[in-house]
Amino acid sequence: MMLKISQTEDGCRGARLMEWWGGEGAARVFGCEGPALLMERAIGPASLADLARSGHDDEACRILCSAATQMHALRPRPLLAAPRDISVLHGDLHHDNVLDLGTRGWLAVAPWPYGANAG
User: Fold this and answer.
1) Of 10, 57, 92, 100, which one is the catalytic site residue?
2) What does the alpha-carbon distance between residue 101 and residue 21 come to, in Å, rounded to a whole number?
């Protein structure tokens, strides 16, 4: 397990989004309260960034797209207070935010609201 403490409101929103995904395409969340997020730890030895840098970017991009497809699939439970043709996006999906979680495969971490400041 890994504990992440968010320093910003956007980080807290990202933690709630991780919880809502329920381990589908993203690391599992075991608990989320205030700025604290207890989540599944990446234990696999592989790295998408290393895979891309070693000349296998097509494979790395396929893995990235697979995680995105799982995360952005329709869910039976609501997330937004008044959803209307709105889709929830990861917002910061790249090679270093999809990690090898061993037997669970490649899963996303660290969502960030689209358009939010990273600082």
Assistant:
1) 92
2) 16
